[in-house]
Amino acid sequence: MTPAPTSTPTPTPGAPRTAPAGAPGTACTVGASGDADGAWGVAVSVCRDSEHFRGLAAEWGELYRRCRAVTPFQAHAWLYSWWRSYGVPGRLRVVLVRGGADGRLVAAAPLWRVPGPLPVLAPLGGRITDYCDVLVDDAYPEALPALAGALADLARTAVVDLREVRPGGAAGGLHACWRGPRRRLRDSTCLELPAVPVDGLVDRLPSSRGQRVRAKLRKLDREGVEQRAVPAAEVPQALRRLLDLHRRQWAGRGVTAEHLTDRFAEHLTRAVGTMAATDEARVTEFRLGGDLVAVDLTLLSPRLSGGYLYGADPVLRSLKLDVTALLLRNGARINAGSGRTTMSLLRGDEPHKHHWRPEAVPNQRLLLARRRTAPVLWLLAAHARTRRWAADRLRDRAWARRLRRGGHGTAT
User: Fold this and answer.
1) Strands 120-123 and 159-165
2) Where are the alpha helices (DSSP H) in 178-261?
3) SS (H, E, C) 10-58
4) Between these two residues, 408 and 364, which has the higher pLDDT value?
5) What Cα–Cα distance (Å) separates residue 353 from each residue in 3, 10, 102, 172, 310?
6) CB 62 within 8 A of CB 70
7) Least packed by Cβ within 10 Å: which of 2, 205, 290, 387?
8) Which residues lie closer than 8 Å to 64 by C-beta, 6 or more apart?
9) What is the Rg, in whole angstroms, of the alpha carbon atoms belonging to the chain?
10) What pLDDT sits at residue 395?
11) Given the DSSP bridges, would you call strands 342-347 and 182-194 parallel, antiparallel or unpaired?
C-alpha cells in the first residue's frame, strides 16, 4: 500500500484546513479555524494505516523535541515498534493535528481501538510502557483544543482511556478542557529521584545509610567492575545479552512473563536500536575480570531518564556487590550535563528502590467520553475503583500486589 501523504496543502489564511480527501489510511475532520487576526488554522486527520504511521517518523521526532512534557515512551521509534509487535490490523487510530503556514505537525494522540467487549481507545504502548501521553507543541497552544475536538469525535463510539499519564503530561490539558463525561483516577506509582550526581543522591540519605552506600560504591571499584557505553551499531547484540542475563537473574523467582517472549525481544531490539542512534536510549555493559556481569537499558527524553530494564549475573549477588548502587551510579553519569531534572525508577515498588528515598509519584488514568458512551466510562471507573479497593484490603498478599499494579507485565 502506498503511504498516505504526510503533509497537507497550504490553506487560505484564517480558514479551516483539512488533510487531502481520500488520503490512504486517513479519516479527515475539519480543524479549528484561524483567529480574528487571520492566523493560520489547523487541520485534523486520523492515521489508520501502519505504513502511513511509519512514514511520520521524521516530523514526529521534530514535534517530540518541541514538547517539554514528553517521556521516552512518546518517541516514534517506541510507539511504532510496539504497534508492529502488538497491534491488530485495522485498529490503529493516531490523531494528527497540523498547523502553521507550513502545515507542520503540532499535536498527536497515538491511540488504537482495543479488542474486547467494550469500545475503548487506548494509547499505543500497552502495559510494557510506563508513561503514556499525547504530544502537543509548546509553541502552538491552539493545537490542544483541536486535538480535544478530534478525540471528541472518536469518543462518540468509544471511550478514550488514557492510562499511566505522568503528572504534568499534556493529556492533563485534554482532561481539563473536555466538555463531556470524564474521570480522573489514580494509576500506577512510579518512583523518582533528582537527576544529580551520585554523591548528591547519597547526600539525601540519613547519615548511617549514606555511609553504607558509599562503602558499597567503593567495593564496586575495589572489585574492578568496569562499564562501557554500547555504540548504537552494537545495541541489538547487547540487548540479546541483557535479556539472557535478565532470564538467568530471575530463574526460579517471579518474573514479568512478557519479558521472556519473542515479541517483546523483537519490539525492544527494533525500538531501542533506533532510539540509541538518536540518543533517546543508552545501553551500558558491565564487566568483572573481563566477563560480562550486567547490562542496563536507560531510556532518555529531554527532561527525564528512566531505568527500563537490566540483566545481572547471579554471581554479583554471591559476591555481595550491590546492583542497585551500580545502576544508579550509571544513571547519574548518563544524566550528567544533560539538562534532565528527573531520574525515574519507573513502575515497581521493590524494597531496594526505597533505600534511596525516591519520591512516589502516582500516574493518572484519564477517562474521556461523550454522552452516548458515558455508561462505558462509568463501568470502567467502577471496575478500577473496586479493583484497587480489593487490592488495598489484601495488601500483604503477593497475588493482591499484582492486582494492585493492574496486571502490569502482560503486554496488551
Assistant:
1) parallel
2) 198-203, 207-223, 235-249
3) CCCCCCCCCCCCCCCCEEEECCCCCCCCCCCCEEEEEECCHHHHHHCHH
4) 364
5) 45, 52, 47, 28, 14
6) no
7) 290
8) 70, 74, 75, 76, 135
9) 22
10) 62
11) antiparallel
Number of Cβ within 10 Å of residue 359's Cβ equals: 11
Q: From CA 188, how far away is CA 117, in angstroms rounded?
A: 24
Question: For residue 402, what pLDDT band results from cuts at 50, 70 and 90?
Answer: low
Mean pLDDT of the chain: 87
Burial grade of 227 (CB within 10 A; 0-12, 13-18, 19 or more): middle
DSSP-derived letter for residue 363 is: E
pLDDT tens sequence across 13-72: 333 333 333 333 333 333 443 333 334 589 999 999 999 999 999 999 999 999 999 999
Distance CA 8, CA 22 (A): 12
Write out the three cell numbers for 151: 478525540
Alpha-carbon distance of 149 to 333, in angstroms, equals: 43
Beta-strand ranges (E) seen in 260-394 are: 281-288, 291-300, 304-312, 342-347, 359-368
**In the numeric block, which cell numbers belong to residue 211?**
555511609
Burial class, 310, CB count within 10 angstroms (exposed 0-12 / middle 13-18 / buried 19+): buried
pLDDT digits (tens, 9 = 90+) for 347-361: 987 888 899 999 999
Q: Cell 475532520, residue?
A: 29
Looking at the chain, how many residues does it have? 412
- Helix axis angle for 262-277 and 235-249, nearest 10°, is 140
Cα-to-chain-centroid distance, residue 37 = 38
193 burial level (CB within 10 Å; 0-12, 13-18, 19+): buried
Q: The C-alpha cell of 251 is what?
A: 530463574
**pTM for the structure as a whole:** 0.86
Segment holding 153, helix H or strand E? helix 143-154
Residue 400: its pLDDT value, please? 57
Specify the pLDDT at position 23: 36
Q: Residue 160's closest CA among 364, 363, 370?
A: 370
DSSP labels for 70-99? --GGGSHHHHHHHHHHH--TT-EEEEEEEE
